[in-house]
C-alpha cells in the first residue's frame, strides 16, 4: 500500500502505542533510577527504527537516539522520532512523558502521533480530539524546574495559571487535550522534541509557530528548533504581541 496521510498517521500511532507499551512494561520491572531511562531510550528506539524500516524502507529517519545521516537533508519525507520524550520523568516513575513519531514532508510537520502511555492515550493527526470550551482564564504549561523567562512574563501579563509539567510532548498534548491553553517554550529544543506534537496540534486546529510567529521548519542540517508556541487560536495574537514587546 502506498503511503498517504491517513496510512502514515495510523502507522505513526501504531508504532508510538507499541513503543509506549514496551516502555510501560519496562518501567514495571525496575525501580525508578537513571538506568531505567537509559534502557527505555535504547529499547524504544530499536523498536521504532525496526518498524519504520519495515513499513517505509524508502524514507529517512531522524531519531534522538540514533546516528544522523546527512543524506536525509535531500529527502522529501523524513520521520522525526523521540523514542522517549521526558526520560527524566519516565525514570522517576512519573506519567508526564511521551513517545513522538512525526513525519516531515518538504520540511513541514504534516503527520504525527504522540503516545502518552502513562495516561493510556495516543493522539494522532488523522483523528484529533475536538477542542474543549475555552476557559476565561488561560492555563499555561511550563517546565517543572526551569520555566523560560519568556513564558513567565507572558503568563504574568495574561494572568494565566501556570501548570508545571515534564516532557515537551506532555505539555503540547495538554493543549491538544484541553487541559491547558498555551505552551510556550524558549531556550532550546530539537526537531524530535516538537515535530510530532506540532503535527498533532496543527491537525487539532491550534496555533503552531516559532515565538516570533514564523513557521516551524524541519529537515535542516541544524536539527535545533530552539523555540515554539502551541496555543489556542484565541490567544495567539495576544501572546505573540507580548513576546514582540519583550524583544
TrEMBL record:
InterPro entries: CysQ/Inositol_MonoPase, Inositol_monophosphatase-like
Pfam families in UniProt: Inositol_P
SUPFAM superfamilies linked: Carbohydrate phosphatase
UniProt xrefs under CDD domains: CysQ (cd01638)
Name recorded for this polypeptide: 3'(2'),5'-bisphosphate nucleotidase CysQ
Natural source organism: Sphingomonas qomolangmaensis
Taxonomic lineage: Bacteria, Pseudomonadati, Pseudomonadota, Alphaproteobacteria, Sphingomonadales
Amino acid at each position: 500500500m502506498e503511503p498517504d496521510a491517513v496510512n502514515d498517521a495510523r502507522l505513526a500511532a501504531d508504532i508510538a502505542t507499541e513503543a509506549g507499551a514496551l516502555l510501560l512494561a519496562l518501567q514495571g520491572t525496575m525501580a525508578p533510577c537513571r538506568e531505567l531511562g537509559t534502557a527505555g531510550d535504547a529499547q524504544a528506539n530499536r523498536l521504532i527504527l525496526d518498524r519504520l524500516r519495515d513499513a517505509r524502507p524508502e524514507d529517512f529517519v531522524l531519531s534522538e537516539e540514533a546516528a544522523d545521516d546527512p543524506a536525509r537533508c535531500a529527502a522529501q519525507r523524513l520521520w522525526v522520532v523521540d523514542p522517549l520524550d521526558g526520560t527524566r520523568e519516565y525514570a522517576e516513575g512519573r506519567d508526564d512523558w511521551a513517545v513522538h513519531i512525526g513525519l516531515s514532508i518538504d520540511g513541514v510537520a504534516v503527520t504525527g502521533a504522540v503516545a502518552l502511555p502513562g495516561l493510556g492515550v495516543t493522539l494522532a493527526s488523522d483523528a484529533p480530539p475536538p477542542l474543549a470550551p475555552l476557559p476565561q482564564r488561560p492555563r499555561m504549561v511550563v517546565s517543572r524546574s526551569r520555566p523560560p523567562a519568556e513564558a513567565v512574563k507572558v503568563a504574568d501579563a495574561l494572568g494565566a495559571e501556570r501548570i508545571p509539567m515534564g516532557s515537551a510532548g506532555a505539555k503540547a498534548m495538554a493543549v491538544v487535550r484541553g487541559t491547558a491553553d498555551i505552551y510556550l517554550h524558549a531556550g532550546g529544543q530539537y526537531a524530535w522534541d516538537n515535530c510530532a506534537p506540532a503535527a498533532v496540534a496543527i491537525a487539532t486546529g491550534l496555533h503552531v509557530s516559532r515565538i516570533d510567529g514564523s513557521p516551524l521548519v524541519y529537515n535542516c542540517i541544524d536539527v535545533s528548533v530552539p523555540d515554539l508556541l502551541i496555543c489556542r487560536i484565541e490567544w495567539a495574537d495576544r501572546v505573540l504581541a507580548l513576546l514582540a514587546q519583550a524583544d
